[in-house]
Design brief:
alpha/beta, Aspartate Aminotransferase, domain 1, Aspartate Aminotransferase, domain 2, 2 domains, 4-stranded mixed β-sheet, 16% strand
Length: 409
């Protein structure tokens, strides 16, 4: 062992502790479909991404168990080594139909997909191996509030990255015009629903910009899949109905779909190319049968959950209105992700603790995840919350987040 490394790690952990930035894992469990803390106290979950409550749906759990029993607990290797099971192909076909695309490809996580597909796309036309050097002429244009996985993918691409102000399409247009006439692909990266602010990208306008400048549009639908768009198919699907298309759609299976993993959806050619050139797919063990069963069941359920989506939207608006009464900035949220900006880190931690004392689990989001001075509570709702749960949440906000707290922001 390296005692010097261990000592250095201890010192850095102590520095994080001193700055109130040390993160710790905490025990929580689901009992009878309800969240409980280590003492067995029930908590209202206003922190997870299980937006439709499908992780606890009987059909999703039953099909996961059934497919594990029929096909085994795990996948033996990567899909290019031991072959692709028919159940995997069937789920990908169902995902592609759900997203209105020609084809889809499964990944192990959203972070893995963004971190490996983006640099792979930057290498288009560069070399003949998955690890070829990036195309020096490629350029990436990324919204400043994109998720850390997108940022990581853009940095790993090792090509010029232009970061545009959040949802500022005039600036994006200016940056794209600066690259007009230059060789190589231009890749625009955005989320459709931004994970920390809960607002939306203007996808129709982005599609027009991409078409005008000959750019490829890559959209992360992690927080829209299952919740927004026609039958919960996402904002990219809604955009396609209006006559414009997104080139590359990424989404996750562990949020509204209640399972695990991620996908890329697009043209058949795109998917075939990723099978040959994306290291994150080539060198990763396939998803296990239980996960595939859960995803398969969720895809059967989601299109028919319009009532749940409508209730989720109503409750999200009720929460924004309750926070507005206390002068909290919710950053233009229009979705089930509702931030309450507090500002100072310790004040945000105290607010999260106050809500937990009242029986509500909410997350304090601090730098480096968000900019300095914008620490916030990130409240996320689920259609699985009953009216009694929702009222208890609103009462906790009223009791634990007095309007005077907002004045510290």
């Amino acid at each position: 062992m390296d005692p010097g490394l261990d000592l250095l790690l201890q010192q850095q952990l102590a520095a994080l502790q001193a700055g109130a930035r040390r993160r710790r894992l905490r025990p929580l469990q689901m009992v009878g479909g309800r969240l409980q803390d280590a003492q067995g106290r029930a908590l209202i979950d206003a922190a997870s991404n299980d937006y439709l409550g499908l992780s606890q749906h009987p059909l999703v759990k039953a099909r996961a168990a059934e497919w594990a029993e029929r096909h085994g607990a795990g996948a033996p290797s990567s899909r290019l080594v031991t072959g692709t099971r028919e159940i995997t192909l069937a789920v990908e076909q169902k995902l592609a139909a759900f997203k209105g695309c020609e084809a889809a490809l499964l990944f192990s996580s959203g972070f893995q997909a963004n971190a490996t597909v983006i640099p792979a796309l930057a290498r288009v036309g560069a070399g003949d191996t998955p690890n070829a050097a990036p195309n020096a002429a490629a350029a990436i244009f990324s919204d400043e509030l994109n998720h850390a996985s997108i940022i990581h993918g853009a940095r790993t691409a090792r090509c010029p990255v232009e970061v545009f102000r959040h949802n500022d399409l005039d600036q994006l247009d200016h940056l794209l015009r600066r690259h007009a006439g230059k060789p190589g692909r231009k890749l625009i990266l955005t989320e459709s629903v931004f994970s920390m602010d809960g607002d939306r990208a203007d996808l129709p306008a982005l599609v027009q910009l991409a078409e005008r400048h000959g750019a490829t549009l890559y959209v992360d639908e992690a927080h829209a899949t299952g919740v927004l768009g026609p039958q919960g198919r996402g904002l990219a699907a809604q955009c396609a109905q209006s006559g414009g298309g997104v080139d590359v759609v990424m989404g996750t299976l562990g949020k509204a779909l209640g399972a695990f993993g991620a996908y890329i959806a697009g043209s058949r050619t795109l998917i075939d190319w990723l099978v040959n050139r994306c290291p994150g797919f080539i060198y990763t063990t396939a998803l296990p049968p239980a996960v595939l069963g859960a995803v398969d069941a969720a895809l059967d359920l989601v299109p028919g959950m319009d009532a749940e989506r409508e209730g989720l939207a109503r409750n999200s608006q009720r929460l924004r209105e309750a926070l507005a009464l206390r002068n909290y900035d919710t950053l233009g949220s229009t979705t089930q992700i509702v931030p309450a900006v507090i500002g100072a880190e310790q004040d945000t931690l105290d607010a999260a603790q106050g809500l937990e004392d009242a029986g509500v689990l909410a997350v304090a989001i601090r730098p480096p995840t968000v900019p300095e001075g914008s620490s916030r509570l990130r409240l996320t709702l689920s259609s699985a919350l009953s009216e009694a749960d929702m009222q208890r949440l609103l009462d906790a906000v009223a009791a634990s987040l007095p309007s005077s707290a907002a004045d510290k922001a």
